[in-house]
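Please, structure for the following, as tokens.
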Amino acid sequence: MANFMQLFPRIPYDIDKTDLSDYQIVTNITFRVGILREVLVNASSYYFYTVKDGETPEILAENIYNNPEAYWIILYANDIYDPQYDWPMSTRAFKNYIINKYRSQAAASLSLSETAITDTQILSWTQDTTNDDSVHHYEKQIIRYNATDDVTMEINLEVNGTNVASSLNSTLENIPYDFYTSANTSDPRALEFAGSYETFNINGKTINQTIRGAAITYYDYENELNEKKRRIKVIKKEYYPQIITEFNRLTNTNQPFLRRLS
């Protein structure tokens, strides 16, 4: 991988940003191959892929292009500059990330020292829906099931600990989160919105709607961010020879990165 990156153009760059005349020569990681832009404009030239647990860009490139060194094509197609943080973490890496990120926060909440708290305790704390300290935010979940067409739509609206931050329509505005977890009889709206369920008809279609509140823990929040990274664009392998040909031309190299595709 290191030898491959040496083929990229190198530019002067003031890393410390303290002296405009104090430049260092670095690899231009923003270098782009023109054909990649042209290929990505055509929706039929790529497809969406869900990255499997533990699957690295190199493994994926080997499976698709028969060449692990072609990982850069996958990264560029998805505007990924840092595969360590922008690529989905494996289960093991994700757990380590959670443990390291929330160690001090969990220790303070549990009245433990950072050296005394265990990894298991940290993971449990980040998933504890009964502890307000473990909750990243609250969501109002609106689930609409179209019984006629057998289609389900789920809408999640983030709320803070007091009031709804946004809503679908005026009838759902400014409903505190507590209304979805308990029947606060001091407000007549409470009974309606505390896990409400209703059935109605839209254009002849039967819609079953459920509204409820949910506490999203730090673990849930981080896991959702990680899972969103799994859906990536993959350029079809038939475009690989063209991409490599242009890359070699632009970098003035003739490296053995072009392999016969099976």
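The longest helix spans residues 91-109. Confidence is low (pLDDT under 50) at residues 162-174, 177-185, 187-193, 255-262.
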